Amino acid sequence: MCRIGQQPDPRGRGGEETANGAFAALLEDSAEELYESAPCGYLSTLMDGTIAKINATLLGWLGLEREAVVGRMRFTDLLTMGGKLYHETHFAPLLRLQGEIGGIALEIRRSGGGRMPVLVSSAVKQGGSGQPVLIRTSVFDARDRRAYEEELLRGRKAAEEARAQAEEARAQAEADRARLQDALAVLQQSLLPTTLPSPPGMETAAYYHTASPDRLGGDFYDVFPVDGERFAFFLGDVCGKGPQAAALTSLTRYTLRAAALHDPDPVSALSTLNRVLHERYAQGGDPRYCTAVFGVLEPDRAAGKVTVRLASGGHPPALVLRADGTADFLSTPGGLLVGVVPSAPFVGATTVLAPGDTLLLYTDGITEARTGEDRTTLFGDEGLLAFAADRAGQPPGAVVQALTDLLHGFGDGLDDDTALLALGVPAPDPQTTNPR
């Protein structure tokens, strides 16, 4: 006996009898009942396809009565037109060749006119003499699988369409960007001189580096005659980027050109530009400014030298590279940014270029370039001075080419536009110099 509060052990004799009884009840189903009510369809056909036996499950799917099917229909009569073609061309030949075939996707016709996707497996039963006498076929409901496959196909199609749309959008964006870059390049070139003249007895060279093809820069330069003997030059950098900077650059260039034709004195030209920019922008509540170096070249053909008179408005000092291999900055103290205040003081400076000397002007893109592996060290004024000193005595074209290569070597450390302008007096050709 069990003590009060205890339950019989299900693993004991009583538990075993209960389990065995339940299991025996399950086995009371007859083989015929299991065949008829199986979760899949069963049918047996003669070798010519005539249906000899079919279970209730398959009849229920078809919506047919047993009397209308057994002995009256063939297996192919249950299939759709496409299924019949596949049965004749693939299914039946493989079954005859192999004796069995499994997992073939077909569709059966339902009495209401609908279709039902199924998976069909068949095997040939042989008689005592080894001759095929019967075909046994199992039919599995594939509606859930078909729905899953269709969902997968819809998902794949949607993904492919999205990918195609993304690719088309990317291609369109690249095309739009290319057109924008072409337009910006044309506009950028319109802000620079198409050709750079060389004053008599001098050589000139220039280069403009665009940090980004997707935006307009604000650096500018020019060289042009002011009378029969003298030439003027300028180089500078306006604040900002983009269309507004381009408009400011255009105004600055044409103002300096007009001012030089009226009075080529460098201080006077910068003062005129200062008044124009201040009246145009500062008084309208949108202050804009620029830095600039303006100068005039006065050649002395008899001496073979050129006097340079210039003034600077907040711009980095020019470099003078001498034929003897030395280089130094040309100091222009006191120059304020152009356009900030109504009357900005500008101070002139003078130097003389002898044969082999070169005057180099530049914008701060080169000195503010980031160098080193971590891109945290600025190239700086001293770096530029040392680099230029190694090229002292070389002609302007060679100096600008060396600086161009330097700019390209900065890579992503150069994130600002840079303009270069070199003006020099050619060194005498030793092969044409007569010895005394």
Poorly predicted regions = 1-5
Q: Name the beta content range.
A: 25-35%
Q: Could you give the order of the helices and strands?
A: HHEEHHHEEEHEEEHHEEEEEEEEHHE
Assign the structural class, choosing from mainly alpha, mainly beta, alpha/beta, alpha+beta, or little secondary structure: alpha+beta
Q: How many helices does DSSP assign?
A: 10
Strand order of the largest sheet: 2-1-5-4-3
Distance between the termini: 143 Å
What does the average pLDDT come to?
87
The helix content, as a percent range, equals 25-40%
| Dominant shape | rod-shaped
**Main sheet specs:** 5 strands, antiparallel
What Rg do the Cα atoms give? 47 Å
What are the salient characteristics of this protein?
rod-shaped; 36% helix; 5-stranded antiparallel β-sheet
Question: Would you write up a description of this structure?
Answer:
With 436 residues, the protein is α+β, with helices and mostly antiparallel strands. It is built from ten helices and 17 strands. The chain has helices at residues 13-26, 31-36, 56-62, 66-69, 81-98, 143-190, 243-262, 266-280, 380-389, 396-409, and strands spanning 41-45, 51-54, 100-109, 115-126, 132-141, 203-209, 219-225, 231-238, 290-300, 305-313, 318-321, 327-330, 348-353, 358-362, 370-371, 377-378, 418-424. Strands 2-1-5-4-3 form a five-stranded antiparallel sheet, with helices on both faces. Strands 6-17-14-11-12 form a five-stranded antiparallel sheet, covered by helices on one side. It starts with 12 loop residues before the first helix and ends in a 12-residue tail after the last strand. The model is unreliable at 1-5 (pLDDT under 50).
